[in-house]
Amino acid sequence: MRYPELSYWLSTVDGPLTPRPPLTGDTDADVVIVGAGYTGLWTAYYLAVADPTVRITVLEAEIAGYGASGRNGGWCSALFPTSLPALARRHGRDRALAMQRAMRDTVREVGRVTAAEGVDCDWRQGGTVVLARSEVQLARARAEVAAARAHGLDPDDLVLLDAAEASARCAAEGVRGGTYTPHCAAVHPAKLVQGLARAVEARGVRIAERTPVTAIRPGAALTGHGTVRAPVVVRATEGWTPGLPGHRRTIAPVYSLMVATAPLPESTWDAIGLGARETFSDHRHVIVYGQRTADGRLAFGGRGAPYHFGSRVSPAYDREPRVFAALRRALGELFPVLGPDVPVTHTWGGPLGVARDWHASVGLDRASGLGWAGGYVGDGVGASNLAGRTLADLILGRESDLTRLPWVGHRSPRWEPEPLRWLAVNAGLRVMSDADRAEQRTGRPSRRAAAFSRLLGH
Ligand SMILES: Cc1cc2nc3c(=O)[nH]c(=O)nc-3n(C[C@H](O)[C@H](O)[C@H](O)COP(=O)(O)OP(=O)(O)OC[C@H]3O[C@@H](n4cnc5c(N)ncnc54)[C@H](O)[C@@H]3O)c2cc1C
Q: Fewer CB within 10 Å: C terminus or N terminus of the chain?
C-alpha cells in the first residue's frame, strides 16, 4: 500500500509513513481500541492522561490516519450531523443546546491540546463562511440563523452576512449573503492524526499497525496475529464498521471526494480572500466544503459519489472521475479567477460513516465492556475529540457533564437489509443533486429536498 497516495494530506506529512510493527501473538491490556483514526487515538490520549497506569493497545488495519482522519477536508468544527432543531425535538431544548455548547468547546479543546502536545497541524481558527449564491440559498441562510436563535444560540455563534460582508471573507462569484460562525479551525488532517499517534505513543500507549481485527467480542479483539484480551474493547472503525462480524447494518459508508489545486499566487488570493483561512461552503443541497491550506492551495471536496452495494469499502471507490470533474467545475464557478483550466494537482476520497437516523453516538455497555463511537457523517474531526473525552470518562467510571450529553448511549436503528439500503441511500443522494439543478433552473426551493430532509429528521 502506498500510503502517501491516499490523499494530498498524507503526501505532505513530515517524515515517511513507515508502519509501526504489527501485533505479535496474544497479549493482555486494560483497554483495546480498534482503529487508529481520531476516535481511537483521542480515546487513548484522554485515558492515558487521566490514568497513566491504564494499559492501552490500539489495533490498526493499516496505519494511523489511513481512514477518513487522514483524508478529510480539515474543518475542525462545532458541527454535529443532527441539526439543533432535530436534536431539540428528540432530546429537549436544554440537552440539545448542551450538545451544541460541548461541540463549540471541543474546537477550543483540540486547539489547546495540539498546541500543548506540539502537534503542528497548521491550525488556524478563522471560522466558517457559508455563502448564499441565489435567493433560494439566501432564504435558507436566514432560516438557519432564525432557527439557531430560536434554539438559544446567539450572534457569537452564528450571524447572517449581507453580500458585502460575505464577499469580504470569500469573494466567490454571485455572492448575495451568507452565514458566519467563528467555531471552526482549518487543519491539516493528516498532520493532526499522525501527531496524535506520536503523542499517545509517548504516553505509553501501544499502537500495532497493519493488524486488521477480524472480530470484536466481550473481553477480546481477534486478529490474524493474535488476540488482545481486555475487559474494555472500543470500536472506532467508522466507515469500515460493516466489515466487522455482527455490524453489517450498523453504519453505512458514504464516500466524500476531494481535489487540491497547485499553490495559488498571491494575486489570486487577493481576489479570493479567505485571509483568516476561513473554511467555506455554500447553501446548496449536495454538500461542498473547502479550505485555504497553509501552503496556499484550495482543498475542496463534496459528496455525490455513489453508495456501494452491501456497504462495501474499497480503495477503488476512492476515485470517481465524474465527481472530480464536478468538483473542479464547481471550483471554477465559485472562483472564475482560477481560469478555465482550474490547476488541480491532487484528487482523492474516502468513506465516512452514516448511522440510519443520522445521529452520531458514543457509548460503553457496562455489562459487556464494549464501547463505540462514530456515525459522525462529515463532522468527525471535532466530534471525535468529544467522543474520546467521553469514552475516557465512561471507561474510568466517571460521571461528568460529558457523559450526560444526549448522544451518549444513543442507539441508532440498523440500516435496512440490501437491496433496500442501496436503493434508499442512492435515491437520497440523487434527490439532493436533482434539487440543486432544479433550484438553479427555477429559482424556487425544492419541495422534494425539503421533504427528504424532514424524513431524515433534519
Ligand atoms: C473526504 C472526506 C472529507 C471529510 N471532511 C471532513 C471535515 O472537513 N470535517 C469533519 O469534521 N469531518 C470530515 N470528514 C469526516 C471525518 O474525517 C471522520 O468523521 C473522522 O475522521 C472519523 O474518524 P474515526 O477515527 O472515527 O474514523 P477513521 O478515521 O475512518 O478511522 C477508522 C480506522 O479504523 C481502521 N479500521 C477499520 N476497520 C478495522 C479493523 N477491522 N481492524 C483494525 N483497524 C480497522 C481503519 O483503517 C481506520 O484507520 C470527512 C471525511 C472524508 C472521507
A: N
pLDDT tens per residue, range 388-418? 999 999 999 999 999 999 999 999 999 999 9
Is the CB of residue 132 less than 8 Å from the CB of residue 138? yes
Higher pLDDT, 285 or 35: 35
- What pLDDT score was predicted for residue 286? 77
Q: Give the containing element (helix H, strand E) for 148.
A: helix 135-150
Q: pTM for this one? A: 0.96
Ligand 1 atom with the smallest distance to the CA of 79 is 11
Choose between 439 and 118: higher pLDDT.
Answer: 118
At 306 the pLDDT is: 86
Are 183 and 76 in contact by the 8 Å Cβ rule? The answer is no
What is the spatial distance between Cα 318 and Cα 1, in angstroms, rounded to a whole number? Answer: 14
* 100 membership: H or E segment, kind and range: helix 93-116
Gap from CA of 195 to ligand 1 centroid (Å): 16
What is the rounded CA–CA span in Å between residue 135 and residue 75?
26
Report whether residue 363 contacts ligand 1, using a CB cutoff of 6 Å.
no
The region, left, alpha or beta by phi > 0 then psi within -120 to 50, assigned to residue 440 is alpha
Residue 273 DSSP class: B
Between the CA of 70 and the centroid of ligand 1 the distance, in Å, is 7
Residues contacting residue 376 through CB under 8 Å, at least 6 positions apart: 81, 238, 352, 353, 360, 383, 384
Ligand 1 atom 25: residue of nearest CA: 37
Strand bridging mode 128-132 / 177-181: antiparallel
Average pLDDT over residues 355-381: 97
Residue whose Cα lies nearest atom 16 of ligand 1: it is 380
- Whether residue 57 has its Cβ less than 6 Å from ligand 1: no
Ligand 1: which of 72, 123, 222 to mutate, judged by most atoms within 8 Å of the beta carbon?
72
Task: Give percent of the chain above pLDDT 90.
Answer: 88
Mean pLDDT of the chain: 95
CA–CA gap between residue 263 and residue 384 (Å, rounded): 30
Decide if pLDDT at 454 tops 60. no
String of DSSP letters for 46-78: HHHHH-TTS-EEEE-SS-TT-SGGGTS--EEES
